[in-house]
Amino acid sequence: MGEIALSGQRFRRIPHPYSGQSADVESLLSDNVEPWPHLTELLQNYTADWVKDESKYGHYESVPTPVFENQIFEGPDTDVETELRLSNIRLGRYGDATDDEDPTTSGRYSGGLFSGRFSGRSTGSDAPDSTVTKASKHYGGAPLLPYEPVFNWLAARASVYGQRTPEIPTALSSSGGLKISVKIASLNFQAGLVEPWYGTICLYHREKREKLSEDFHFRCLPPEFQDEASNYPRKAVFSLEAPSPAICLLVQLEKHVTEEGGITPSIYTRKEPVHLTERDKQKLQVWAKMIPFREPFAWSILPLFDAIVTGGVGGFSSPTNSPLPPGVLGSALMETSLDSDGRLIADSKPESVSVPVLVDVPTLHRVKENYTEEMLLVEHPSGQSSMLSFQEPKRKVQKPVKATLRLEIERLGSDDHETDCISECGSFNNYSFDADSHSLGASFSGRSAQGLESTKTFHNGHQKSNSGHRDLQAGIGSSLDLRRSEFRAVEFRLGPKPEPLSQLLHLLYVYPQSVTLNRKRNLFIRLELRVDDGDIRKPPLEALYPRDADSSMQKYVHTQIDANTKTPHFHDEFKVQLPTNLSPDHHLLFTFFHVELQTKLEAPKPVVVGYAVLPLLFASQVIRLDGTLPIAKELYPNYLKDNVKDRLEYLDDGKTVFKLRSRLCSSLYPVNERIRDFFSEYDRHILRTSPWGNELMEAVNALKNVEASAMLQFLQPCLNMLLRMIGDGGETLQVAAFRSMVNIITRVQGETSDGDERNRYLVQYLDYAFDDFGGRHDPVYPGLCSVWRSLARSKAKGYRVGPVYDDVLSMAWFFLELIVKSMALEQSRTYSETLPPGEELPPLQLNDEVFKSIGQLYDCLLTEVQERGKKGLTLANKLNSSLGFFCFDLLSVIEPRQVFELVALYFSKFCGVCETTIHEYKLNFLSIICDHDLFVEMPGRDPTERNYLASMLMQELFITWDHEDPALKAKACRILVQLLCKHEYDLRYQSLDDKLYIAQRYFPLVGLILDEMPVFYALSSSEKREILVCVLHILRYLDDGSLVKSWQQNIARTRLFFKLLEECQELFEYKKAGADGLMGAMPVNEQGKGTLCYSEKLSPAVNHFLSEASRQDVRILLQVTKSSPGPQWIFPQVSPDASTFWKRVSPVSNSPSSPNQPHSLREALAQAQSAGRGAGMALKESLHPMLRQKLDLWEENLSASVMLQLLEIVAKFMDAASSQAIATDYTKLDCITSIISGFLGRSQPLPFWKAFFPVFNNLFSQYGATLMSRDNDRFLKQVAFHLLRLGVFRNESIRKRAVVGLQILIRTAFHYFQGLSRLRVLLTITLSELMSDVQVTQHRMDGSLEESGESQRLRRSLRQIAQENISTDLLRESGLPEGTLSALPDGGCEQIWSWAGVHELSNSLLKAVEAAVGHALLGPEVMTADKYATAEAYYGLARAYSNVPDLHIMWLLYLCEVHQGNQSYAEAAQCAVSVAGVVMQAIVSKGDHMWGKEHVEALRKICPMLTGASFGEAASAEIEGYGSSKLTVESAVKYLQLANKLFVQGELFHFCAEILELIIPVHKARRAYGQLSKCHTSLTSIYEAIVEQESSPIPFSDATYYRVGFYGESFGSLNGKEYVYREARDVRLGDIMRNLGNIYEPRVIEGKQSLHIIPDSRQVKPEDLHAEICYMQITSVEPVTEDDILESRRDRHSSKSVTTVSARVFNRFLYDTPFTKNGKSQGGLEDQWKRRTVLWTEGSFPALVNRLTVVKSESREFSPIENAIGMIETRTAALAGELDDNRLNEGDHPSRLQSLQRILQGSVAVQVNSGVLGVCAAFFSGEPSTRLSAQDLQELMAALMEFMAVCKKALRIHARLITEEDQEFHSQLVIGFQSLTAELSHFIPAILSGF
């Protein structure tokens, strides 16, 4: 298509598609039409170049869409980065991806956020602004791009109400119906191809019995005739408006007429093969060369479509009885795609076209008698019609022809046709004969065509051959005359939809039907066109189209011969080129000839039978003529005159025996009489042949009564003529022409619009045909504005203007666009000659009168909008949009400031917050005018120039956000997003200067939001996202100076600014549903809630896009290409099983076999709603996997780009504040600390973490003193928490950066606190909070627990903090300088970094983690059964957090509760004492005089574990929410009272007394006398209890102690360890053996071992134990306090000596083990040895736990003699102790007597063999006495002597104490003593002297 610039860059000329394409059209143009101005207009309309306004619908050239990369959001247990790297290594593609990978769907990781926006593109001066420069400036991509990834400018414009859409004329459209090419491949006869064959093919509608196209002529020649054959077209292209099952191909064959007496055609229908002799062949060939006449021979029909079988073109495919394969016209030809909204549309340019296929035509039927079109379809007896059952009129049996005709049929794509190769008979509408047309007369019986008909033809042209198609050769025995040209057949449209005539057509198709004769003849007809009837001998006009396309126009054409019949029938088609100006003398002359079909000396000569005449005026007054004519025997000169007609002689007495049809195709001659009258009066008006008067007015007004269908044919020329009258006519004529024009376009709009707001024919007229008379006359806009303004003002003044005013309002868009194009054409023509190349057109200078007229008209129309809008009329909304587009168009034509005046008039009319309807009008108006190409540059880029439209836009948008209608708020947000998207993708605005300019234009909107934050907060979440993504986009490209200047205004405004950024963090956080771990997971209660949308994060356009895409029934693959501004849909060729769309999963049941499985998205949503579940996740899961992956990709990139953009803004703020560019004071930096906390607390992609830590380092380097102050404790806690949390991550890159972040905190603490005390407390606190979220254990395969990977990674991160050897590598990998940790802060002068301190900090944190892991590894079952391990776990936690008083106290109280539950009151009391001690130490360290150090020491005597614990450092390092604020005297008293209560329950009254002594000073100081009274009362009862315990004859014991040793692998960490257990005093050895067996036996069994308990206390040698058995040794032990107990030979028995207060705390224990040298455990006294073992525990009992580890063990063996001496000394000491008891002084005789009697009876009774007599018998007699040394014997005798002395003394005291009742008992004791003395004297004679 040619393209010539009219002027500047606005218009382009498009050569008329139908002008100058054939010689016949040129002949029409060469005629002199000056006497007929209407013909001049008509010819100009059909031949002049079209003028298209390139800027009318906006000019938008987009950059390639961005390529989004998959963002890696790591969780604690994910390491996608490493997995992808290893995967790439395995696949051998580490590094760049291959070309066939699609980064948008492959999921591969790329280092950048998203890349490739402007790759491969340079824009002149913008070339230096490369992608690299942009990447170095910005941390990530623009958030707007992933938020609106499917932005399509056309789709965005289409969302505006009343949006204009271009209408491409049919001649330029590539989607004009269906085109099918037919090629003759071969023709084979059973008898052979021995003579020439001819034929025609056309489209035929079997139901309407009408031809749908003109005939395509072809020939098949034998080899003998090929040298004589001219090039015939071998391929025809047929066009269809729409497919239908009734459409078929009608094929007719003809041959040279049969010679009388020659070879008959029956040779081609015989069943048996026929072999012609050479003579017969020669005879046929000679006759064919001699005779030029032909006769019909055979016919057939080929069905193309059938409604029974679906899936074809337009919903139909080949029927079962069609010879066409299903793929030819079936679904394979239906190419589909999705538009930007996801809707399924027919693709005008399919990717592939079906290959041509060979089709054998069904049986060729022999023609015995000629037939007509009505005879082609008959009914079966069953009543069903059939395409293949054709009968002759007389129902004669038809014989099939033994021949095969093979066709090559192909469906053509749009690229197979050149748009400028159009048929000579283009768009054409045929209508019924108008009622006002002239009568045809009695002799011409014409009938009107039923219904409306239309024809569309194409020009015979040449087409390039398709190399991809097969070149089909002729079959054997046949030869085709081939040529490369194509024949484009006429399409005769039969539909009811008329169309304007858009091309020059002046044709008449003539169809002779039949002739009725009185005798048989061999008749044919010759046709010619004559200009007059003067002399028949004059040659006729060359106006007849030949059958041979290469031939020139002919003077004569003739029909076939119907031989030897009285009623010959003809099926020929003649196409006649009509003269430009028809006169009454133009006529068609039919000459009837008879010819003898015999060969004589020469060829037979035809004989004239008669003549028939058809005047062209008759044929031209109806679209379709069907009538009869008489046949004259002879013609006389002037035979058209009436007087001559009367003298003519006719056949059959003048009957109309000749039947014919005609079809008119003319765009010059209207059939409607009113239109012809108008043309006639227009000629008179233009030529000024007579002054115009009523005739002209009547003709103009009469156009109102012309049928819309008739007017539509000549719509464009009529409008041009009326416009000329409006432009240069008088006022009366202007008004009449204007009213008539309004009437015409209104009726055309109403009858042919198909529901569209803008009739496509009117749009095509405006956009292409109208050129304002080509500059030949004055422009039309002044007159049009004037006459319209007059009408509007008359209405405004109250005058009656009739219904025309409503019509003109409804069609205002047409007149407004007409005015603008007239102005634009004048602008172009005015400046085109003086405009330098490449310059833009200057604005058109309107004179004041015209602009005043426009302003008044505009004001009147605004008033109509206001009044009608209040009534809710649809017309108001349409008119509002029309006014918006009027201003839009004027911005490119006239001075912009003049347009601004109109815009100001608009907003002054609708100012402020209006009614919902009017406010919506304003938004539509803004959407339209702000879509202008030069919106951002009006009126100019000079800083002094104020962008009025931008200011008005932001003001109105903000007003809308305060409106009460939610729909309007959402619409305003959409307008803003779409505008910024348009700027971002616009190719013109890709340089940094352009983006900066746009950002500065929109930046005031941010100020409006900050000034009225309540308006923003009142918006919904989706609306906030829309606004915030625009705000971020503006800030991205805004210069630093403007941004800093906004921060300098005041503190409050800056805080609000960062509040907006916090909203961004919240609203754009990426939460992955179903993720595990500490971050990045969408909470379960949030998944699936919200509105029914696929994504709440992305633009509403994305949800609409996905909704449309998910409704398709074909499998789709989304691909964002680099060459298109919007996404395209590609349909891959897949297998039938894979071609169906993704089977959506039911939100109710995921089972594929569920009977309620939904088959569509709508059913899924309905089930989700009925099930009461949120449909958010159901919707997303219903998407195709590719769409769902794309949705995740967009959401990931959106979150990543937003967070990186926020980080960039924070970095700018830090730089500005550090350079003191911001004069305001921010004491806590709380404006950015919350942002930093938000960053760390949310799931972030890897690129963010890589960019974050350099900013984090700068933050603490520049503002360390501020951030480490107590005011920022909360911030520091959050930072520490999240850094520790990142240390849990599996991803090595993130963990290393977390370690570096912790080191930065440590460095800052060193610099500003000169140590790590406070930071240690802070990190311990945050670690405690973190451990509640970290999953520290995991299950093994066997169900047991083990330490989780998260815990292991956390410990590894904490160790790396103190590893100096890897510190440099960590800093380098984090993008920080190697000297970061050693760098001095601002103002610092000394480096105090200490790796030793860091190591100590690391160890303290590791202990806390280990304690937490140990506690968690127990599991609920162990914690229920094993009270010892449970208590140790809680104790370990309390000890790990000992440097934080609050945490230490918390875990101690937990431990206290555990002990109370186990009734271990002594241990619980110790916990309470420990808590009180922590509080008391903190109070004493703060200098409080309530208690002193001596009181703390008193507590340590009760709870020795307090020894060495110091909390002064922790108390001084108070952290917000933790620390000394809770360490008060009241707290200490409360826990002391709790300890007192628990000690009472444990009967440890000695401790109670000490505790009350600590409480009493507090009550004294506070003069709480009531509390003092209670304390003293308690003391009284406590001391009484102590006296009762000590006076008990049975020594009191508060507990029993057992040593337990563990040996075996199944014990785990207990293996090889010894513990001392403290149990209740009533727990015996058997009880603890049973309890411990119940605890450890399941564990041993799980380890596939058995448990054996060693009941004695012998020494255990591990090498002697069996590996498959676990051993547990349990021994009863006694607490001891003496230091020399190991050397003492005495036996340990409970005595009164251990009942003192000091003896209540034990850390040493003893047990004796008897043994003999012979291996037996027991023997005689002379062989009995004893091993004494003393154990030292880790702490003292009662302790915080029930068992303590044995840390030291010593043993000594005693010989039998030493053992015996010890036994005697033990009894002596017991009796002496009883005698020395204090009760002697107290006179407690009864209790003393009872105890004394018990001991005496056991000492002096002779019958006790194991007593002293047994010892003497064992060692003073027999063999043992000889082995003992004298010294040993002396020691034994001394012990016996002392024993007897003590017994004697005891008897004396007993005698004094007893009463008369005990005299007998005393006597027995004395007798026993005497007997014992006598017995001992045998061994020790000296004993008698002593007693």
What does this structure look like?
The protein is an alpha+beta fold and 1891 residues long. Helix content is 42%, strand content 13%. The strands form twelve sheets. A six-stranded mixed β-sheet has the order 15-17-6-10-21-20, with no helix packed on it. A hairpin with a 4-residue loop joins strand 7 (197-205) and strand 8 (210-211). Helix 14 runs antiparallel to helix 15, helix 25 (966-985) packs parallel to helix 29 and helix 41 runs antiparallel to helix 43. The longest helix has 34 residues, at 1185-1218. The termini are far apart.
Describe the secondary structure blueprint for this structure.
Layout: E1 4-7, E2 11-14, H1 23-30, H2 37-47, E3 50-53, E4 67-68, H3 80-91, E5 114-115, H4 131-137, H5 144-147, H6 153-158, E6 178-189, E7 197-205, E8 210-211, E9 216-220, E10 235-240, E11 247-256, H7 278-290, E12 294-303, H8 326-329, E13 336-338, E14 344-346, E15 357-360, E16 365-366, E17 403-411, E18 428-430, E19 453-456, E20 461-462, E21 485-488, E22 491-493, E23 506-515, E24 521-530, E25 557-558, E26 562-565, E27 574-577, E28 587-594, E29 607-615, H9 616-620, E30 624-629, H10 642-645, E31 658-666, H11 673-687, H12 694-702, H13 708-713, H14 715-728, H15 731-752, H16 760-769, H17 781-796, H18 804-810, H19 812-831, H20 848-870, H21 874-890, H22 896-909, H23 916-929, H24 948-961, H25 966-985, H26 992-1002, H27 1004-1011, H28 1013-1017, H29 1021-1037, H30 1040-1047, H31 1051-1067, E32 1072-1073, E33 1081-1082, H32 1100-1109, E34 1117-1119, E35 1128-1130, H33 1161-1170, H34 1175-1181, H35 1185-1218, H36 1230-1240, H37 1246-1267, H38 1273-1286, H39 1292-1313, H40 1317-1331, E36 1337-1339, E37 1345-1347, H41 1349-1361, H42 1367-1373, H43 1395-1425, ...
Parallel strand pairs: 10-21, 32-33, 40-41
Antiparallel strand pairs: 1-2, 2-3, 4-5, 6-10, 6-17, 7-8, 7-9, 7-11, 11-12, 12-16, 13-14, 15-17, 18-19, 19-22, 20-21, 23-27, 23-31, 24-25, 24-26, 24-28, 28-29, 30-31, 34-35, 36-37, 38-39, 38-41, 39-44, 41-42, 42-43, 43-44
Helix pairs in contact: 2-14, 11-12, 12-15, 14-15, 14-17, 15-17, 15-18, 16-19, 17-19, 17-20, 19-21, 20-21, 20-22, 21-23, 23-24, 23-25, 24-25, 24-27, 25-29, 26-29, 29-31, 29-35, 31-36, 35-36, 35-37, 36-38, 37-39, 38-39, 38-40, 39-41, 39-42, 40-43, 41-43, 43-44, 44-45, 45-46, 46-47, 46-49, 47-50, 49-50, ...
